[in-house]
């Protein structure tokens, strides 16, 4: 049992109240309210229990911190935006020392934040920009202006990259510059795309220019031989010219016609290449025979005023060398290269041949002592419509398609073509074709030519030709002493004549005939005369046409315009195969 005096009892109660007031510790928190006018406000509340005048009281203080909270939110949002920004943000002091970089900086450059703090941005220099570039940059930002430009910088791993940048000065209240802020973005991909677009645009413009020049040149290359053909044809009608002079006119007409035909062939071939309408037709090709055939055919194309020798070399002349390739396209490749050499060589030689590379393939070469080609044009000469600029190219004429066709055919056959040349030092073109090589000793067998059989063999020939002019020309080639000529103007008529005449020795069949085509007529003729030799004579003369037509069952193929020698040679070959000669 306790006893308290009045004084001690009072002190005891005060101590109890004091202890109770201490239970109300200081408390701070924020609360959002809506004012009477409807506007939201943020208040900071301060609460504390106090003992005053013998009683326990609660002290509450309210402070409007709306403006401060809004400012803090802006700072938080700004900080988050900077940290999460996909562009690179760098803050440096007035001396150029880095004080802040965001994560995008590390992602782009490869440097961590810790590695660059206190460093100078020059650690990113690649050496691409000169001193004047950086002087202009510093002069601009120190004057209080923004600098806008592009850097070609280097990452930590040494990789080079492009970035666009805006660098702005930051000043204090007195206007003194204290910091610089750089906002940069990696534009390497955009830069590459832009450069590719520029190159594509330049290439398109160059292509348009070349095509325009090509069309203008085409007009010239067609009209020039046509002028000779039409002009000298009119002169042949004159009575005042001697036979020798008229013979000269005929030679000019023939050469002009041959040149015009080559122009047309090149145009059609390049069109087929552009539209990918060509496919290789692989056959077994006798290379030595092909080489000798090219030499014989191209030797006569050398102008008399040129002092050049056409030399054919063989890797192994004592053997027949065979490869599997497209003979027509290979022949066209070599013809274009050799013809080019003849065109641009005035004296010396044009030499062509081949070398066998064991277990690899075969390499053909064409070498000349001509004017040569500047190395800067080595790639361009193989482009469509591309040719070396200059007076010589203009004087020599041509469409500039020969080498483009040669390159396209070489690549179609899985090979490569290249050139070695310098001005005034001639040129060397090489074509490598990967293929298997087969060789065997040459066996020479005597044979009888159609031209040697004059007076011995009388042939009855059916000419299936709907065009009167073409028939008239063919009829004139077959002399009545050796040939009996029949004519069919349609495919159906050709079939009927063959059925009615068992003594026909040979048929020259035009492929494109009215009504029944030449191919359809052949099938009908074969039903009654399966062994009758039928030669296709046609204006379908592009690469692959011969193989396609022979595959349809024809015994031979000859393309228009045809010559006497070519016609007789084809007939001779077909008759020998049939053992009729």
* CATH class categorisation of the largest domain: Alpha Beta
CATH architecture of the largest domain: 2-Layer Sandwich
CATH topology of the largest domain: Heat Shock Protein 90
Shape descriptor reads elongated
Strand order of the largest sheet: 5-4-8-7-6
Percent range of helical residues: 40-55%
Description:
With 581 residues, this protein is α+β, with helices and mostly antiparallel strands. The chain folds into 5 domains: 6-69, no CATH class; 85-186, PAS domain (Beta-Lactamase); 192-273, Helix Hairpins (Orthogonal Bundle), CATH 1.10.287.130; 281-441, 2-Layer Sandwich (Heat Shock Protein 90); 450-577, Rossmann fold. The chain has 16 helices and 21 strands. It has helices spanning 6-22, 66-84, 103-109, 113-116, 131-142, 188-236, 243-274, 287-299, 327-343, 391-396, 402-412, 468-477, 491-500, 518-528, 545-551, 564-577; strands at residues 27-34, 40-52, 55-64, 88-93, 98-101, 147-154, 160-171, 177-186, 283-286, 307-312, 319-325, 347-357, 361-368, 416-421, 427-434, 437-441, 459-464, 483-488, 506-510, 534-538, 556-559. The chain has a 5-stranded antiparallel beta sheet, with helices on both faces. Strands 10-12-13-15-14 form a 5-stranded mixed beta sheet, covered by helices on one side. A hairpin with a 4-residue loop joins strand 4 (88-93) and strand 5 (98-101). Helix 9 (327-343) runs antiparallel to helix 11 and helix 13 runs parallel beside helix 14 (518-528). The longest helix has 49 residues, at 188-236. The radius of gyration is 47 Å and the shape is elongated. Mean pLDDT is 85; it is low at 1-7, 391-395 and 444-448.
